[in-house]
Amino acid sequence: MAHGLRGARGDGLILGLETSCDDTCAALVTREGVVRANVIASQGLLHERYGGVVPEIASRQHLEVIDSVVDDALEHAGATLADVEQVAVTRGPGLIGALLVGVSTAKALAASRGLPLAPVDHLHGHVTASMLGDDPIEPPYLALVASGGHTFLARVDDPSEYRVLGETLDDAAGEAFDKGARLLGLGYPGGPEIDRLARDGDPSAFEFPRSQPGEGLDFSFSGLKTSLLYTLGTEPFFAHGAKKGSVPVADLAASYQRAIVDALLARLAQALEREGLERVALGGGVAANRELRERAGELGARVWVPPIELCTDNAAMIAGAARFGRAIPYPEYLDLDAAARL
Ligand code: KG4
Ligand code: ZN
């Protein structure tokens, strides 16, 4: 009678929703942090031709697919809404129109069954993603979150909170990859393209700056793309198809990637030492980067890198983070609002 048992409340399933940017995500996670389903409907192709996420298109697409993404997640988990004891949703930060789709859907789903609703900080989700699964990281630890929208280092002592130790002062690391790729005439998102090309390139062929602003643990990546632009000459030549064969793209990609990864690793090493920590969790889309993953092993700390579908935006990390936060009882959340900034 497994089915009947699952139908009872108290099975501990948390339904998470995430729509802060360009992925429509729903997941089911248990109280223990077991991911039972993690569905991600990527809008990447829709935005590719614009070279970046178009907010209006993102919101409309979320609205289009969110119901079926939730249905898929329930089906993957072999569950129904009756098995869900709490709903969790990304409240922010992110694109306001996109967030609103998730928040309204979450409110409607939770209210339809009188369930509590946990509003989750998207960044808290990234920071605690390594606490999911069968080898969860344990606090205290250092988290590096590097994606297209954010790049920061945080210290986690208690899983319900995190303290930002340093962050990017300008571009995010993923943004540096994306902008660099664009200058090199590669597709969007640029990180995977540069990662792939870099494998055949010489990382010491070109010298790019490794900016370390100030005394603290902040990052700066905007000088890097300018430097790449100068290296390429001022003409955005690739866009016009000129000179394509004459530019050592693989060497440029490898050298550019080396500069980004060096900057991330230098700050990680500094933070570990300063904070006296021995465990590191990597997260965000840039954690998919092969060079970063490989060289993080040289930090002298134990490093957790979740599977890629838990590194990039996903709802499992949102449901997972909700385990450590406060859920609002029904019906107090009915006027809950999304927040572009938290
Ligand atoms: O976390 P994410 O999916 O979305 C947010 O930005 O929140 O991260 C996407 C970013 C993009 O900038 C993409 O270029 C980068 O992660 N990325 C990578 C790799 N895969 C994705 N950057 C470097 N190497 C990769 N393999
Ligand atoms: Zn994110």
Description:
This protein has a 5-stranded mixed β-sheet with strand order 3-2-1-4-5, sandwiched between helices. A hairpin with a 4-residue loop joins strand 1 (13-18) and strand 2. The protein has 342 residues and is an alpha/beta fold. The longest helix is centred in the last third of the chain and has 27 residues, at 249-275. It starts with a helix and ends in a 20-residue tail after the last helix. The relative contact order is 0.18. The chain has helices spanning 2-7, 44-48, 55-77, 96-113, 122-128, 173-183, 190-198, 222-232, 249-275, 290-296, 308-311, 316-322, and strands spanning 13-18, 23-29, 35-42, 84-92, 117-121, 141-146, 151-156, 163-167, 279-283, 302-304. The site of 5'-O-[(R)-(carboxyoxy)(hydroxy)phosphoryl]adenosine (KG4) has 20 residues, from helix 6 and helix 7.
Furnish the topology, listing elements before pairings.
Layout: H1 2-7, E1 13-18, E2 23-29, E3 35-42, H2 44-48, H3 55-77, E4 84-92, H4 96-113, E5 117-121, H5 122-128, E6 141-146, E7 151-156, E8 163-167, H6 173-183, H7 190-198, H8 222-232, H9 249-275, E9 279-283, H10 290-296, E10 302-304, H11 308-311, H12 316-322
Parallel strand pairs: 1-4, 4-5, 6-9, 9-10
Antiparallel strand pairs: 1-2, 2-3, 6-7, 7-8
Helix pairs in contact: 3-4, 5-12, 6-7, 6-8, 6-9, 7-9, 9-10
Bound molecules: 5'-O-[(R)-(carboxyoxy)(hydroxy)phosphoryl]adenosine (KG4) and zinc ion.
Zinc ion binds next to α5.
